Amino acid sequence: MDLSRIGWVEAKERLLQAGVALLPVGSTEQHGPHLPLGTDWMTAEAIARRASERGGWLVLPTVPVGASEHHRQFWGTLWVPPDVLRDYVIGIARAVASHGLSRVVFVNGHGGNTGALEAAARALRRDGIFAYVYVWWRAIPEVIAEVVEGGGSHAGEMETSVVLAIAPELVRRERYQEAAAGAAPEWGKRVHGVEVGYDTRDFSATGAVGDPTPATAAKGERLLAAAAEELDAFCRWLSAQPEDALRPPPHLP
Amino acid sequence: MDLSRIGWVEAKERLLQAGVALLPVGSTEQHGPHLPLGTDWMTAEAIARRASERGGWLVLPTVPVGASEHHRQFWGTLWVPPDVLRDYVIGIARAVASHGLSRVVFVNGHGGNTGALEAAARALRRDGIFAYVYVWWRAIPEVIAEVVEGGGSHAGEMETSVVLAIAPELVRRERYQEAAAGAAPEWGKRVHGVEVGYDTRDFSATGAVGDPTPATAAKGERLLAAAAEELDAFCRWLSAQPEDALRPPPHLP
Amino acid sequence: MDLSRIGWVEAKERLLQAGVALLPVGSTEQHGPHLPLGTDWMTAEAIARRASERGGWLVLPTVPVGASEHHRQFWGTLWVPPDVLRDYVIGIARAVASHGLSRVVFVNGHGGNTGALEAAARALRRDGIFAYVYVWWRAIPEVIAEVVEGGGSHAGEMETSVVLAIAPELVRRERYQEAAAGAAPEWGKRVHGVEVGYDTRDFSATGAVGDPTPATAAKGERLLAAAAEELDAFCRWLSAQPEDALRPPPHLP
Amino acid sequence: MDLSRIGWVEAKERLLQAGVALLPVGSTEQHGPHLPLGTDWMTAEAIARRASERGGWLVLPTVPVGASEHHRQFWGTLWVPPDVLRDYVIGIARAVASHGLSRVVFVNGHGGNTGALEAAARALRRDGIFAYVYVWWRAIPEVIAEVVEGGGSHAGEMETSVVLAIAPELVRRERYQEAAAGAAPEWGKRVHGVEVGYDTRDFSATGAVGDPTPATAAKGERLLAAAAEELDAFCRWLSAQPEDALRPPPHLP
Amino acid sequence: MDLSRIGWVEAKERLLQAGVALLPVGSTEQHGPHLPLGTDWMTAEAIARRASERGGWLVLPTVPVGASEHHRQFWGTLWVPPDVLRDYVIGIARAVASHGLSRVVFVNGHGGNTGALEAAARALRRDGIFAYVYVWWRAIPEVIAEVVEGGGSHAGEMETSVVLAIAPELVRRERYQEAAAGAAPEWGKRVHGVEVGYDTRDFSATGAVGDPTPATAAKGERLLAAAAEELDAFCRWLSAQPEDALRPPPHLP
Amino acid sequence: MDLSRIGWVEAKERLLQAGVALLPVGSTEQHGPHLPLGTDWMTAEAIARRASERGGWLVLPTVPVGASEHHRQFWGTLWVPPDVLRDYVIGIARAVASHGLSRVVFVNGHGGNTGALEAAARALRRDGIFAYVYVWWRAIPEVIAEVVEGGGSHAGEMETSVVLAIAPELVRRERYQEAAAGAAPEWGKRVHGVEVGYDTRDFSATGAVGDPTPATAAKGERLLAAAAEELDAFCRWLSAQPEDALRPPPHLP
């Protein structure tokens, strides 16, 4: 149930009954030569909608640009400073809470957003608004381990499978080889245990991390289903908590 | 041509050739009992896409939540502070310019956003990024005067017609009467020439301004076509300007 | 009754009885070759004082520099960023309210200040301080239509008449012709409905908009009297409102 | 020569020739029961104008409200946060410098402003704008020692004399006794060398520090003349410096 | 070589020759009932000094309070907001760079600081200052796996061993059992893959994570030596890089 | 009693009993060629600890870098902007107060910090946290007058004596002559009563103010003892005050 698609009369009913609001937060950033720039926001939106179909959670409009400055050397990457992303989602969450629905899940499709979203959640909790950050690939490690044969955290087999499931017409299969040729084996570049790869281009020539070749739409469907199921389960838990269980614990006596 | 739907290889080509980028900026806010909360962002997006179909301008992902605090008493309205909206679109425009495309039009679907967008444009111009605010209903006064029989600036005949053209399934025609009964005849509430209506609810019981009853999809199509045509014409003008003509004039000698 | 000219003993009495405080806010900016840079703050101050003479409203000290960056290419224009102006008047209004007088009118002499003043008023209302923006020329459209023969919103017949009434010794009549020669016929520069004139110098060679030649002190007196009368009427209305009528309306049930 | 009173044609000439701009910065705050709230801005303005009469320095419009929160318990005191005052004068100084006059003296009439003004000056110097803080009573200690019989730094003999010279009609001589009865002997309240008097009311019942009774207009004239003379002398020095002498010294080799 | 302990004459020599500056950043926060609140800053300082002994790197004064709000329910925990920590270390790094030493390692003793330090490093890199975040336990996973028998990331065997090596007099061995009894087995509290433990007290009754009992000073020495060695190795790598290798890569052609 | 050296169990007891917390705030900045850069934070720490030994006040970890930008031309000087220092100590003081100890003394070792610390104290007082700025040399003028033969406020006889008492191994006596040769006789550089010496290097070639030659450890001990005694006396006073006596006085009736 998308908030954008209903009027205020229906919104009243949904806000009072939904229990949890889902805010998809993604990015518009390079995903190798073969995946669309909107991969992350499309994925976040797809997972949120599928979870909503299961549990009736209220889906807020998707935040399409996030903290992606580290991809900026690649054509088309958009970004805002992390503090601006934080303040943007804080604004939205406060607004939702003003209508009586104070439990929000940031359905996050981009790893680079996580710090800003956690900072937002922490700030909101001080005001009695209970926001949580759902990073989909962190929630389903077993399924990923089972489904994904190769690896690669960015524009690799996992993300390519997901886009094949969501919007296959946007995947350029003819560029898999090019993507893989310049891909990094894993995220980042460490020297004596220190991360020195501040920008993706520090360690990946094509922007990809991992080989997309083994990706299939069926794998993507499996991942999306698992992610949506887990998100739905979390929302059930969240909506069932008494408010006191969500509040920060008191100071030690 | 949506930036979100292409990869960085195509993005390079588009960024270097498009001449102008369009950033749809809307809101998620009450639009009377009969129109969806996403009316403004859907409209901005629709106009940007139609203009892009005409002139090939690059369409950036839609900013769905804006400066709508004055609608906050109505269920479902979302908002961010104007400064946050300003900073969010500044971030996006700077990112686009970093890829060599420094002419951006904010395609604005919500009047309350205008001040923040103008402030963004002014700040960007200082750094050689040329952003302009396209407020669609300001660009086509003659067509509006011709098409719209009644009046009303918010959720009235004009906006209802547009949504009937874009997404008729989201319009609740059975609520027109309810909307009109509580509607304000015009925007705001002035006392001795001073605007004292800070919130929509100060002057409208249902959130609407004007009667939606005369709305038709055909009128909406006419408005959208005119708005897209005018936006396309503006983009042609903008892309044809030499950069010096866009820069601030120098100090008087 | 100027607050600056009384001590705290008298101030107590005035603060508790005045009902409304007036804060003149102007600018120091070019007004064509013939009018003084202080035109806007002098006008705002004059109107506030005349209204105070009628109704006994408390006049706060004049804020002399505002949001005039768009005039910066002309010699002598001063400005502060809009956010700074907003915070400056917020500070003053909060201080007045701390003494028990929580109804304030920003008597605005410069159109460029309006957005910042409205933002201030909106922020103050959240804290139970009721500020309103009085833009004098918006309050008396009929009188202006009747008195002003030509037109021009900046340094034209209207403003020149006002300065002739307030401080005729500061008007350089011998420069009327020069002003008119380079004046714009109206404010701004629109291309396909988009405002592209970010700076006054984008559309006016001398900084004036309209021809000052038909200006007379008598017209100026008429305008000032009307503006003061309307402001006084607004203050009467404001001081008569119960506080609940000024508060934001509650959320819809 | 007041900038407010001339048009941009004259302003050009003055900006290019004046050498130094003077920005009077005062406050609107309690000055005991006998002096007007505007004492500080009136004094700063008077000294700036007198110095300008001597040396032709360009006088900018007076900033009437400053950092006076510590007087807030007394009726009528206005204030803005120190950071806002700092940003306000930074804006004005940058504007003046944009017209080619980059030497500015903040003529300060209120001790509480000094920190904010120094912070502004320091920030401006980083950008090649040379601002200095002239605190009038610090510049003429010998004259003060000679003229002032009693003492008291706030609303005492010294300030009362000055207002008697500037605006005798605003001095309530019949309240001298009341002022003196509740006055503090000196500013602040120290305990074991620590200042614990955060607010004036922590140590003064009437807001005055020192006894105003020995004040005379003649003493005030003497003080004003000396302060203006010293300010003029400083401006001569400042305008005579080569720019390199004003820049921060380079890092040690 | 501590910068604090030398004068500016020696500092010149060290700044020009050291190649890398080390800024220990820690926290003052609860570390179970048995470890001192200063554990993290003492550890960071100890590692920095030991690395400096090996390679002569310049040690800056220790930042003792960091982003520890999540420990606030435990007596004595101090913290500053993450943005303030970020700005504080940015200031210090800029200052060091102003003296010609533009390579800085934040030697981080507290996991909660990492996001703020990375944000600082990213901001500094934009200005040609090359800062890196050394999180000591991330740099020596093999040694930790070898040395630490049990586990626990906070006030467990690992940290207790380190404090036993640095300052054994501050360890309250008689409280090990109490610490272990209320300790969490691992950091955080996840529900369906979502971190819901915003505060340490959400998942640990005593503030500890893991059992300190197996800790020994010898283990601590081993950990410190390894961490210092790895940090020294990183500094050698860093100081040997040509500046171009540290700059962000250029935009894709 | 250093907070850093105890665990949370002891901290509870100390926080509830100490009555006052001491936060040493210093700087890392040039102190002539003969004194260490850490002079100010070492001094502040030493005084706080000695006072704590007398009265049992709780000593917080030392803030080692402050507002020292004006020393930046000298090798090794570190600094943060004053606003960042202010926010850093505000954070710490709020944290202490969250544990029930809301009386804090900033034990300040660097004159340049004073404005920022006072601003912090003022902000904290609004929230019922009572912070005071102890500037040690201001608290013991008689002892200084008695002990110090020459003069000089920075790296002169007084400060050199103190470091001789605290850390004699860090004093380079062989550089006294060099220090004195380039020293300024007193702080700053005034022209017609205006401070024009924004940077120390504007008036001192070696960074010193005054001649260190007459310094002795015995003098230093005397100064430290007096400063600690006075601080202890202040803390006794502070801890004995009823909370109402510390709150801001109410508005005048």
Summarize the model shown.
Chain A has 253 residues and is of the alpha/beta class. Chain A contains ten helices and six strands. Chain A has helices at residues 8-17, 39-55, 82-98, 114-126, 136-139, 141-147, 157-166, 176-182, 217-240, 243-246, and strands spanning 21-25, 58-59, 103-108, 130-135, 190-191, 194-195.
Globally, the shape of chain A reads: globular
Question: Could you tell me the radius of gyration of chain A in angstroms?
Answer: 19 Å
- In the CATH hierarchy, what is the superfamily of chain A? Creatininase
Question: Taking all residues together, what is the mean pLDDT of chain A?
Answer: 97
Count of distinct strands of chain A: 6
Just give the CATH class of chain A: Alpha Beta
Strand order of the largest sheet of chain A: 2-1-3-4
How large is the count of helical segments of chain A? 10
Distance between the termini of chain A: 44 Å
Subunit organisation of the chains: homohexamer
